[in-house]
Amino acid sequence: MAKKKKEVDDRFKRFGTVSFTGITKVNDFVGYLEQGKLMGTRCKGCGKSFFPPRADCFQCLDSDMEWFEVSGTGKLVTYSQLQYAPVGFEGDLPYCIALLDYGDYKVFGRIAKDIPEDEIKVGMEMRAEVVKLPNGQLSYEFRKA
Ligand SMILES: [Zn+2]
Q1: Confidence band for 109, pLDDT divided at 50, 70 and 90
Q2: Close Cβ partners of 90 (under 8 Å, ≥ 6 residues apart)
Q3: Residue 110: per-residue pLDDT
């Protein structure tokens, strides 16, 4: 009798322009992206919020986490327009990477390409939105609030 092949949860292969990680402890992140939700994790013990989501809290060394949705707006802390990109991202140039401050946590990501650079100002309110990339992969980007 043939041995049953073990099912591998490799949903993370669907994340980002180039996915470097197929299997993580937070694969539900991609399941939520499929539902149009950008999620982080929060430690039930100390309340610390994490984005990108973590399965383990470094503060209290516990793994009792819950998911929360990255909703509302964040303040643009900083951004940079890239003229060179890592392997696999060359076709996306130029693009802006940025950091939004949501108060309890920060979210690193890209600014939507259709926002002219002269309209991007540090301190402006932005929101994160789930997007499907041209190659079918899932990701998220920042848009003006
Ligand atoms: Zn904790």
Answers
A1: very high
A2: none
A3: 96
Q: Specify the DSSP class assigned to residue 138.
A: E
Distance from the alpha carbon of residue 43 to the mean position of ligand 1, in angstroms: 5
Q: What is d(CA 143, CA 97) in angstroms, rounded to the nearest whole number?
A: 12
Distance between Cα 105 and ligand 1 center (Å): 14
Q: Ligand 1 center to residue 101 CA distance, Å? A: 20
What would the two tokens of residue 43 be? 């430690």
Tell me the CA–centroid distance for residue 35 and ligand 1, in Å. 27
pTM for this structure?
0.87
Residue 16 Rama label (left phi>0; alpha psi -120 to 50; beta):
left
Cis peptide bond prior to 94, omega within 30° of 0:
yes
- Taking alpha carbons only, the member of 96, 95, 47, 51 closest to residue 69 is 51
